Amino acid sequence: MPFLPELSWDEAREALKRLRVAILPVGSVEQHGPQNPLGTDYLVAWELAKRVAKATGELLLLPIPYGVSEHHSHFPGTLWVSEEALEEYVYGVIRSLAKWGLRRVVIVNGHGGNLQALLRVSRRARKEKLALVVVYQWWTAVASKFREVFGEEGLGHAAALETSLIAYLYPEYVKLDKAVDEEVKRMLKVPAAAYWYTKDFTSSGVFGVASTASREKGKEVFEASVEMLVELIKELKAVDLSRVL
Asked: Which sign, positive or negative, has the C-alpha torsion 91, 41, 227, 15?
C-alpha cells in the first residue's frame, strides 16, 4: 500500500508510473453526541481509506480533517471551514495529483455537509479535463443494508449507525453508556428547503436512537462499506479516461 507521505520523491516517481487511483479521505471535526469523539467523520473516512488502499494497492493520501460544519457550531469543540475554502483546498490537491499523472481520484467523504463543495470539485475537474473525481459516502453506498441492521431511527447523525462504526474502529474514544435517544424536533410540517442549525432539531446532538449501538454492528457496517468501496475503485480503474476527459 503506497502511502504518499512516506515515500521519497524518487520512490514516488516509480510508484506513480504504475498507480491508477488516488484515495483521498475527507471528514470533519464536529459534535457527534455526548458519546462519540469530535473527529468521528474524519476518523471513519481515514480508516476506510487505509483499508481499501491496502486491499487495492492504490495510492493513499493523508486525510483532510476539517469540513463544512457550521451548522453544528453551537456545540463546543466543533470546527469548520467554508464551502469555498474546502472546495479550493481539495481542488488544489486534485490539480497536484494530475500533474503527476494520477487522474482518477476517489474522495472518501465522511461528512455529508462537505458534499456540495466536493461535487463542485468533481465538476471543475471534469470540465477542465483535469481528472475524474468521484465521491464515496459510506452511509449512502450501503444504505439498504444499514436500514436492515439499525432501522430508520438508528441512521441519523450520531445515532446507532455512526456510534457503532466508531465504537468498532476506536473503542477507546467512545462512551456507549452516554449514548442517548432523542426524537428529532420538526420545524416545519410542509417539506421545504432552508438553512438550519443542529440545535434547531436536537439538544444532545443525536438524531434518533443511539442506545442500540454495538461494536459488533459496527464491524458489519465497516466491512460492507469496505467491500463497496473496493468495487468502486475496480470500476474506476476500468474507465477509459479518453472518453470523459
From this structure: positive
**pLDDT beneath 70, residues of the chain:** none
The number of domains in the chain is 1
Instruction: Summarize pLDDT for 166-196 with one digit per residue, the tens.
Output: 999 999 999 999 999 999 998 898 989 999 9
For residue 167, the domain's CATH number is: 3.40.50.10310
Handedness of CA 228, 94, 86, 168 (dihedral sign): positive
Q: In this predicted model, what pLDDT tens digit does every residue of 195-206 receive, in sequence order?
A: 999 999 999 999
d(CA 176, CA 91): 37
Place of cell 520512490: 11
Q: Which domain holds residue 21?
A: 4-243
